[in-house]
């Protein structure tokens, strides 16, 4: 006679369902972020490349998403296994795509073996979305000039390396987070890492024809829809509040929120910090834009404020976030102008993430130094005791150095290999004609300068119709 199945009710209680919904909302917010990023790009690239750049980002997102399911989450989760005297190998055995805990129903697993299994399973989806977002952001640095095959290979590698970086820098008991490196929103591995890779790729790929100066066949780069890009910015603004909830842990009493860094936090303060980061960046960015008559800062400003504040949404007070956010567009402005004058064709990731992102992490280290964090709730002594470490400027600088260093090294190795195998750069003629027409045979209603001149020359030779 078959034994009756045991149901572990604590794993599927009403309280656990509420937490499941909170974390599931973060995945919805992450998808809104992807939509916003696609809209920004659609409003800024040449029409001749609109389909290609969009679809490459979508495919790159799902390559990162799938790779994260295969191995990425198992790497990140290893910090909690090590905390319990297990190994990264144990984490991989449980959490790779074919692992026992990925492929189990929560009600079938004894809480003594793994409590809160549903939440961890939902976290795979949530963090997989951000693995995909890293690849979407990376594409901004190589858009319209990197071969699709090279980009897709890069997506796999970037996902694995960023997963290891998240193990190091995002959480509370990783090798860098446990001693005190503080990054509430994953600015390091989500934003700064692809920006560091982007520096190397932008240097190796060179500028797009006609970007900095007129080209015989490309008169210039003219954004097709700034309004569409602005809508993308606001879509991101709408999506991230749901993500913030997923960066908080909730313990008894049931409304007690503790940051993923194990710093004291609350939902209301974190949300207000988020809103004011955008507002501060928008105000400062608008001042720069109207002073210089460069519309770019109207879009960069709110994003810069958000990126600068994100690493400390859990520990800043709202007024502090607003002040920090006011300074972020200034930092981005300095970095943007520096790269533009040196003809570096990458003006999104570098000023926003290497500029505002690094600035924000440093501000946390300066003004929130001494804030208790690290370890894990319930551990009262030992290497992982709850809030045993403090935020420090030294650990912030160490974390920044590790993230940028891994980004640069990863991209340098990839460019060396890709240039000698698949090739790295789309040839100039294809860049000029547009990837949509040359690769996909998609015609747009926009003609290049060369096509207009060719048509004009043909009419001159043939004479007016009817002559």
From TrEMBL:
> Does the keyword Lipid metabolism feature in the UniProt annotation?
no
Q: Which GO terms describe its molecular function?
A: ammonium channel activity
InterPro entries (UniProt xref): Ammonium/urea_transptr, NH4_transpt_AmtB-like_dom
The residues covered by the Ammonium transporter AmtB-like domain are 30-437
User: What does the UniProt entry say about where the protein is found?
Assistant: Membrane
Superkingdom in the source lineage: Bacteria
Full protein name: Ammonium transporter
Residue spans crossing the bilayer: 21-40, 61-82, 120-138, 150-172, 184-205, 226-251, 271-290, 297-313, 319-338, 350-371, 391-418
Pfam families of this UniProt entry? Ammonium_transp
Membrane protein topology class = Multi-pass membrane protein
Disulfide bond among keywords: no
Q: Which UniProt keywords apply?
A: Membrane, Transmembrane, Transmembrane helix
Q: Which GO terms describe its biological process?
A: ammonium homeostasis
Q: Gene Ontology cellular component?
A: plasma membrane
């Amino acid at each position: 006679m078959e034994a009756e199945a045991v149901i572990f009710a604590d794993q599927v209680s009403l309280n656990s369902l509420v937490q499941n919904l909170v974390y599931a909302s973060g995945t919805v917010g992450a998808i809104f972020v992807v939509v916003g990023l696609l809209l920004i790009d659609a409003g800024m690239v040449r029409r001749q490349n609109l389909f290609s750049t969009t679809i490459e980002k979508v495919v790159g997102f799902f390559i990162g998403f799938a790779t994260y399911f295969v191995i990425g989450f198992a790497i990140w989760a290893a910090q909690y296994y090590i905390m319990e005297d297990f190994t990264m190998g144990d984490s991989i055995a449980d959490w790779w795509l074919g692992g026992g805990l990925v492929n189990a129903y929560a009600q079938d697993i004894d809480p003594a073996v793994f409590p809160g299994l549903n939440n961890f399973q939902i976290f795979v989806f949530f963090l997989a979305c951000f693995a995909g977002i890293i690849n979407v952001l990376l594409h901004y640095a190589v858009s319209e000039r990197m071969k699709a095959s090279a980009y897709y290979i890069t997506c796999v590698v970037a996902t694995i390396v960023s997963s290891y970086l998240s193990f190091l820098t995002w959480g509370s008991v990783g090798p860098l987070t446990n001693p005190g490196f503080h990054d509430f929103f994953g600015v390091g591995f989500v934003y700064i890492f692809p920006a560091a890779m982007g520096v190397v790729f932008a240097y190796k790929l060179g500028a797009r024809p006609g970007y900095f100066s007129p080209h015989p066949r490309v008169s210039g780069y003219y954004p097709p829809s700034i309004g569409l890009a602005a809508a993308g910015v606001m879509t991101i603004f709408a999506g991230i509040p749901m993500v913030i909830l997923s960066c908080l842990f909730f313990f008894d009493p049931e409304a007690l929120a503790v940051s993923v860094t194990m710093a004291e936090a609350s939902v209301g303060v974190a949300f207000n910090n988020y809103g004011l980061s955008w507002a501060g960046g928008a105000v400062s960015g608008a001042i720069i834009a109207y002073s210089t008559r460069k519309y770019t800062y109207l879009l960069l400003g709110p994003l810069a404020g958000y990126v600068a504040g994100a690493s400390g949404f859990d520990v800043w007070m709202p007024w502090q976030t607003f002040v920090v956010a006011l300074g972020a567009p200034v930092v981005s402005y300095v970095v943007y102008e520096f790269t533009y004058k040196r003809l570096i064709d990458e003006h999104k990731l570098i000023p926003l993430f290497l500029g505002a992102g690094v600035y924000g992490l440093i501000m946390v280290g300066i003004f929130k130094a001494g804030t208790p964090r690290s370890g894990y709730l319930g551990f009262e002594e030992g290497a992982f005791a709850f809030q045993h470490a403090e935020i420090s400027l030294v650990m912030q600088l160490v974390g920044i150095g590790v993230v940028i260093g891994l980004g640069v090294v990863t991209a340098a190795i990839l460019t060396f290999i890709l240039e000698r195998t698949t090739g790295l750069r789309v040839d100039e003629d294809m860049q000029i004609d547009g990837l949509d027409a040359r690769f996909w045979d998609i015609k747009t209603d926009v003609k290049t300068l060369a096509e207009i001149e060719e048509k004009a020359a043909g009419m001159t030779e043939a004479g007016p119709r009817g002559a």
